[in-house]
């Protein structure tokens, strides 16, 4: 590194007063039952400077950090004072498998606000010389901490570098509130500094000024709304003119909007945690911690100073991990420690440092534990399709986003390969990079379902935390019988309420109209409410018996009261879940209000001038709907119906049902036959024919219930080690849940596990032999232990026999092998048994001799597809292009178009593809291409 780089930090000064309450167990009468004390700290731009120093500690010899000196406590009255109350909250283990830990940590319970000095103005502060900057005109980075106080309103305390502006190279502006027409913003705009400006802002600040960005529904929807906001929303008028804007979504995501060469602001990348939505990290971690924007701003400073050692993705994901780590650790447990957040951030940004030192230092071990926990958090990134050979067709005007397809691929064969992986390895591993809603055992990756269930989640949280809302929270849930309607809502509520959840279930089809069934049900609800619980009340099949029950719910839904013996009896807060029995969606139920609805939707009814259904109105249907606050449609485990077609058939536009089937099958196997998972990796011993039957059958007669029933009907005793066709129930019993095509699919089978393993081994062998030809070596035993991959030294620890690979590396080869069919299907080929070869097929003995439409050989086409798969997997994980490979920093020379890939790496794709045909031939399979002549 050359001469030192200068970072000048300025902005609003704050003096923080932390009111900390400690619970004390007294031993003597003269001791108080509790102790409260105040500890004051320098906040504002001083805290930001401390955080930058911490994040940049690995390059401290190469930077010069300039910031006004901290003031003495007796001068604190000259600057704004902020107050917050700290209390102890439960500690939760970080990561996807969350659980409560022993002990508590200090976090902020209430922020009491900030007041400006009553007896001193900015002019007094200037006269006293409290805030002084060095006369630096051209810092490498000017960092501004705008907290919406004096700094943005007047230039009297600005450093000279900001006032003159013309020598500035880069500006990072951390904004606490919306920009508005402040003196600071006008100066940046009038001095043409926006092209040098990066703004760090929270999504809440954008929402406060009118941005239409929903909260915690789905990452797909969030991405679309952010792009729309900067294209035609409020931000299009100001923020869109900046060089870059970083929008922070709590602890879980970041949108990076950047100007392209045409000076148009575009989504450079969106970083997201696929396991959490905005705000869900903190939902079980009560209390607040400040510093989110401070940490992200510091990470950006570190990136801008020396991007080669801190790439953009690494900087921001380390920042998000640090935010989670700070929240997780709080300000200590036994003793209030505002240095702890800085120490936690240092541990996360410089994880390799001092791991072997101070092993006996308990505080060091605690910090390392927090670091290790949050380092397990997984962050993914959107990517630019331009690098791909098979670019998806996307309507830019609609800002469409489909993260599921971006991760898996756009064709149904890729989805099928992922579904097999789910059954064999489980959802946690197979779906680790896919956005999902997971509440207890309920899981969905379908965007529409994610948005609906998360909307209900947000509604329940708001209802739970609002004591003034005493009317029942009424929600309708629809789906085909057996689709898991009640299961989904119960798992969601259990996730939010934990052990305190009381569940009541009433099936209205079993109620006797002349009995006291309703009164007894409401009395049970009242009993639970009196116990200070919020019961989850299921009213199953509420739409049966010609809707005669609807009118009985109107008063309880509206007034939280029920009538008996001429008297009204109130009950407390409750969540009413109305599960449909005859209508499979809310739209089906709502359409009952119109005559002659057929299959048309409500909009079509209105355009067609259809009349209201008088009978539906008389049965209080509209009144009932008006009292609902939300609804969920639980999707089918069967293929969606095609438009204008009542028959069910697979659609490549919506293939999430295959993932849904795989998740249900895996869950059922785990519950019913744990002996099938006979290794530490929890790999299911299930034949590929069985998996194919469950995934590819046209219809399960009773939805998800049929999948679970078939597993339970199969011969899987306690010690059964494998699930094959012999374990299935008889064909007569199968007919209870599936049609004849199920057993046909099972018998047709798929590439067996032994073939997949052979393809994986052949793939590895071809790769290994080619690398050895290029003079690569497996390295020393230390290299193998550290899993060293060093391109410059041509060392790769995986240059060993297939049997010597660890399970993760073997699985990476198996993933490539499972995609064999998908890749061949993409180029118009298929895999068939040689004995089944039809006369109009042509065996492909040499990829290089077969031509396709664009005059490329099949081998060329398959190499491009192979690179696309590799590229997509790495882009999702945040890799970017660099001349030298560094997996820790997510840098790789192959992150580029295939034509620009180094020749030595191109050959790898070639030899891997050429290993396919001879391996398949060993098992009696051939690759064929239809002869279209």
Can you give a write-up of this model?
The protein starts with a strand and ends with a strand. The protein folds into four domains: 5-374, 3-Layer(aba) Sandwich (UDP-N-acetylmuramoyl-L-alanine:D-glutamate ligase), CATH 3.40.1190; 408-434 and 645-748, no CATH class; 447-633, Rossmann fold (3-Layer(aba) Sandwich), CATH 3.40.50; 765-930, Globin-like. The chain is built from 33 helices and 29 strands. The longest helix is centred in the last third of the chain and has 21 residues, at 753-773. With 933 residues, the chain is of the alpha/beta class. The radius of gyration is 31 Å and the shape is globular. Helices cover 37% and strands 17% of the residues.
Structure in a nutshell:
The protein contains 33 helices and 29 strands. It is an alpha/beta fold and 933 residues long. The longest helix has 21 residues, at 753-773.
Keywords:
UDP-N-acetylmuramoyl-L-alanine:D-glutamate ligase; 933 residues; alpha/beta; 33 helices; globular; 5-stranded parallel beta sheet; Rossmann fold
The whole-angstrom Rg is 31 Å
The count of strands amounts to 29
Overall morphology: globular
Domain module tally = 4
Spans of at least 5 consecutive residues whose pLDDT stays below 50 are: 353-362, 644-652, 851-855
Helix content: 25-40%
SS-derived structural category: alpha/beta
β-strand percent reads 15-25%
Main beta-sheet strand count, sense and barrel state: 9 strands, mixed
Strand order of the largest sheet: 4-1-7-8-9-10-11-12-13
What separation lies between the terminal Cα atoms? 64 Å
CATH architecture of the largest domain: 3-Layer(aba) Sandwich
**In CATH, what is the class of the largest domain?**
Alpha Beta
- The CATH topology annotation of the largest domain reads as UDP-N-acetylmuramoyl-L-alanine:D-glutamate ligase
Compute the average pLDDT: 87
């Amino acid at each position: 590194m050359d001469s030192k780089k200068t970072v000048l930090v300025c902005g609003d000064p704050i003096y923080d007063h932390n009111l900390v309450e400690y619970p004390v167990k007294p031993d003597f009468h003269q001791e108080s039952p509790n102790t409260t004390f105040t500890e004051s700290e320098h906040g504002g731009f001083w805290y930001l400077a401390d955080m930058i120093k911490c994040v940049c500690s690995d390059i401290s010899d190469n930077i010069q950090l300039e910031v006004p000196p901290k003031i003495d406590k007796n001068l604190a009255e000259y600057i704004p004072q902020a107050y917050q109350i700290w209390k102890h909250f439960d500690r939760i283990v970080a990561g996807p498998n969350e659980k409560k830990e022993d002990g508590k940590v200090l976090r902020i319970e209430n922020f009491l606000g900030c007041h400006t000095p009553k007896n001193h103005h900015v002019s007094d502060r200037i006269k006293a010389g409290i805030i002084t900057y060095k006369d630096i005109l051209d810092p490498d980075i000017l960092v501004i901490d705008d907290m919406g106080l004096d700094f943005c309103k007047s230039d009297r305390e600005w450093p000279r570098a900001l006032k003159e502006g013309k020598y500035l190279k880069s500006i990072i502006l951390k904004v606490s509130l919306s920009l508005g027409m402040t003196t600071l913003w006008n100066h940046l705009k009038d001095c043409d500094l926006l092209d040098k400006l990066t703004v760090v802002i929270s999504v809440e600040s954008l929402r406060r000024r009118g941005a239409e960005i929903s909260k915690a529904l789905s990452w797909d929807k969030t991405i679309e709304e952010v792009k729309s906001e900067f294209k035609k929303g409020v931000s299009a008028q100001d923020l869109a003119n900046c060089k870059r804007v970083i929008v922070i979504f709590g602890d879980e995501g970041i949108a990076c909007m950047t100007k392209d060469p045409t000076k148009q602001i575009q989504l450079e990348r969106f970083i997201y945690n696929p396991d959490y939505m905005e705000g869900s990290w903190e939902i079980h971690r009560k209390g607040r911690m400040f510093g989110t924007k401070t940490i992200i701003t510091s990470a950006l400073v570190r990136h801008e100073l020396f991007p080669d050692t801190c790439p953009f993705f690494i900087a921001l994901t380390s920042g998000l991990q640090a935010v989670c780590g700070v929240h997780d650790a709080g300000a200590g447990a036994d003793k209030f420690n505002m240095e702890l957040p800085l120490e936690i951030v240092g541990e996360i940004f410089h994880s390799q440092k001092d791991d072997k030192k101070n092993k006996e230092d308990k505080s060091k071990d605690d910090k390392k534990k927090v670091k290790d926990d949050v380092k397990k958090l997984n962050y993914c990134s959107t990517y630019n399709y331009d690098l791909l050979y098979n670019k998806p067709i996307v309507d830019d005007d609609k800002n469409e986003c489909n993260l599921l397809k971006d991760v898996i691929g756009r064709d149904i064969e890729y989805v099928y390969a992922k579904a097999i992986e789910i059954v064999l390895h489980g959802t946690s591993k197979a779906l680790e990079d896919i956005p999902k809603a997971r509440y207890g055992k309920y899981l969905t990756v379908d965007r529409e379902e994610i948005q609906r269930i998360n909307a209900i989640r947000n509604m329940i949280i708001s209802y739970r935390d609002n004591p003034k809302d005493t009317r029942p929270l009424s929600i309708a849930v629809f789906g085909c019988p057996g689709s898991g309607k009640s299961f989904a809502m119960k798992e969601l509520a259990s996730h939010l309420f934990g052990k305190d959840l009381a569940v009541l279930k009433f099936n209205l089809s079993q109620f006797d109209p002349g009995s006291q069934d309703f009164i007894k049900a409401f009395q049970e609800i009242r009993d639970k409410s009196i116990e200070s619980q919020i019961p989850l009340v299921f009213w199953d099949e509420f739409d049966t018996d010609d809707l005669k029950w609807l009118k009985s719910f109107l008063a309880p839904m509206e007034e939280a009261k029920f009538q008996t013996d001429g008297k009204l009896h109130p009950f407390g807060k409750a969540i009413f879940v109305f599960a449909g029995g005859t209508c499979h969606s809310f739209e089906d139920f709502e359409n009952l209000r119109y005559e002659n609805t057929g299959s048309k939707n409500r909009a079509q009814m209105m355009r067609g001038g259809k009349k209201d259904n008088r009978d539906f109105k008389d049965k209080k249907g509209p009144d009932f709907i008006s009292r609902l606050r939300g609804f969920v449609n639980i999707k089918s485990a069967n293929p969606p119906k095609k438009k204008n077609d009542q028959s069910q058939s697979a659609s490549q536009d919506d293939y999430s049902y295959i993932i849904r089937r795989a998740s249900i099958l895996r869950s059922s196997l785990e519950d019913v036959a744990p002996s099938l998972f006979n290794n530490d990796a929890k790999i299911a011993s299930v034949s590929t024919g069985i998996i194919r039957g469950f995934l590819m059958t046209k219809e399960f007669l009773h939805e998800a219930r049929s999948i679970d029933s078939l597993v339970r009907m199969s011969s899987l005793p306690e010690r059964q080690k494998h699930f094959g066709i012999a374990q299935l129930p008889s064909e007569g019993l199968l007919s209870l849940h599936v049609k004849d095509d199920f057993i046909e699919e099972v018998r047709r089978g798929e590439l067996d596990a032994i073939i997949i393993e052979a393809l994986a081994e052949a793939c590895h062998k071809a790769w290994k032999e080619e690398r050895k030809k290029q003079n690569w070596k497996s390295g020393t035993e230390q290299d193998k232990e550290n899993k060293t991959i060093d391109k410059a030294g041509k060392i790769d620890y995986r240059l060993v026999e297939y049997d010597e690979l660890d399970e993760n590396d073997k699985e990476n080869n198996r993933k490539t092998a499972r995609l064999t069919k998908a890749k061949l299907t993409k180029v118009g080929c298929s895999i068939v048994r040689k004995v089944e070869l039809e006369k109009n097929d042509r065996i492909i003995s040499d990829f290089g001799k077969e031509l396709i439409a664009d005059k490329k050989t099949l081998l060329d086409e398959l190499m491009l597809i192979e690179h696309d798969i590799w590229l997509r997997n790495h882009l999702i994980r945040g890799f970017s292009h660099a001349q030298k490979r560094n997996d820790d920093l997510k840098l790789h020379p192959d992150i580029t178009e295939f034509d620009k890939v180094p020749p030595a790496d191109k050959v790898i794709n070639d030899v891997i593809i050429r290993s396919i045909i001879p391996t398949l031939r060993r098992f009696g399979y051939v690759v064929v291409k239809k002869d279209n002549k």
